[in-house]
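Troubleshooting log. The previous structure file for this entry was overwritten by mistake, so regenerating from the original sequence record. Sequence copied from the archived sheet and checked twice against the printout by T.R.
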Amino acid sequence: MSGTVIERVAPRTGPAAPEVPIIELRNVSRRFEKRLDVVGRLARRLGAPVREEVVHAVDRVDLAIREGEVVGLVGESGCGKSTLGRMVAGILPPSDGMVLRHGADIRSLGGAAAREAKLRTQMIFQDPYASLNPRLKVQDIVGEAPMVHGLVSRAGLPDYVDEQLRRAGLDPGFKRRYPHQFSGGQRQRIGIARALAVKPDMLVCDEAVAALDVSIQAQILNLFMKLRRELGLTYLFISHDLSVVEHLSDRVVIMYLGRVVEEAPAAEVFARANHPYTQSLLASVPRIEARRRAFTVVQGEIPSPLNPPTGCHFHPRCPHAMPRCKVEVPALKTVAPGHRSACHLNDAAA
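Regenerated output below.
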């Protein structure tokens, strides 16, 4: 990225990670149903071949995120990344399965415990223009939630807002302005300050730099890493930009059409990708050291989540597809220490 260098994140070191993850998804699925209207129900009664539409956005995902970790979530548009991120952040409930926080099912919590769990995971959205209320001043955008939840007194609110703005890299003197008076990068910093104001320990970043200029992207990414060091934050970083994920992540999770197809430490994924889909994604990334190589793209288009393929979802686009791939869903199996992949080729190799 021109203009600014992105800080490279060192691998996590020190004591072993705690056994209980900060967030764990167990067999989580999310479906969106479009029910038939009156005309549709009448047409079905008369014999017309109409039915309710069901989008299978996330399909039986298992994922654990350890405290202090940066997990990169990668996949093409429409693969379910954002839906998964919203379930982690508590914005969407799962249709099936459980979302655990420190080992406790979030849906089983009540009262103060449920409120605390929701506050501790915050989300940074992709569009800094749409994620801020244009009718509120910055001081209200950042200060409303901590005030409502009793994290700060009314007397201490101005200083508290100033502190959050400074932490996000903004001049507190701007707090009486409205969102339309800021640039895209500044608006994203306001969104970060708003998230930090409720004292979270985890941030879900949904394409948080995709809408920004390239040089501004680097500044925001460096801010995320600075906040990680200072506050001990955990990140689920959703992105389609593999170069960004490679720099930031301790571990990378690859999604395809609602399913996790590969998961491994970042260095392992970029050096020894196992799943054909991951290999195709990496082959499409331009690299200076391989500038004479002919770049390839993932062949075909991602199928519709309204009618996903049977068996392995990737088999219509996979150059290695076998008859088994069309009928049997591959299990996510360990192929190396800390490295899991869902591909029938691993069984054939064994």
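Residues 156 and 297 are 54 Å apart (CA to CA). Archived copy saved in two places this time.
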